[in-house]
């Protein structure tokens, strides 16, 4: 099962600069575990204490996984997972 994972610039040091990588898994949690075997260190940047990090947004086919089941979100062959760091701040 091939799933495309789009990687933000800030995490590309873990993927040797690749903008997108492929992984496998029936759930988001399995996919992240698979990515960790291929790109060590990536899992720690996405998951903390068994949940997605607060300032990391993950989308499956443009749907926010926080509303789909978090790490238990089911995945299918051909899905696209997008990882986006949350951005905050700015001038008043």
UniProtKB/TrEMBL annotation:
A Pfam family per the record: ThiS
Per its UniProt record, what InterPro entries does this chain match? Beta-grasp_dom_sf, MoaD_arc-typ, Mopterin_synth/thiamin_S_b, Sulfur_Carrier/Prot_Modifier, ThiS/MoaD-like
Q: Which SUPFAM superfamilies match?
A: MoaD/ThiS (SSF54285)
Check the record and name the PANTHER family matching this protein.
Answer: SULFUR CARRIER PROTEIN CYSO (PTHR38031:SF1), SULFUR CARRIER PROTEIN SLR0821-RELATED (PTHR38031)
- NCBIfam families, sorted: moaD_arch (TIGR01687)
Protein name according to UniProt: MoaD family protein
């Amino acid at each position: 099962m091939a799933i495309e994972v789009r990687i933000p610039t800030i995490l590309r040091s873990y993927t040797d600069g690749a903008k997108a990588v492929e992984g496998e898994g029936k759930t988001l949690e399995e996919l992240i575990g698979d990515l960790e075997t291929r790109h060590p260190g990536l899992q720690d940047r996405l998951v903390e204490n068994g949940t997605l990090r607060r300032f990391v947004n993950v989308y499956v086919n443009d749907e926010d996984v926080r509303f789909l089941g978090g790490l238990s979100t089911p995945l299918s062959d051909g899905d696209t997972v997008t990882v986006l760091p949350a951005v905050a701040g700015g001038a008043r």
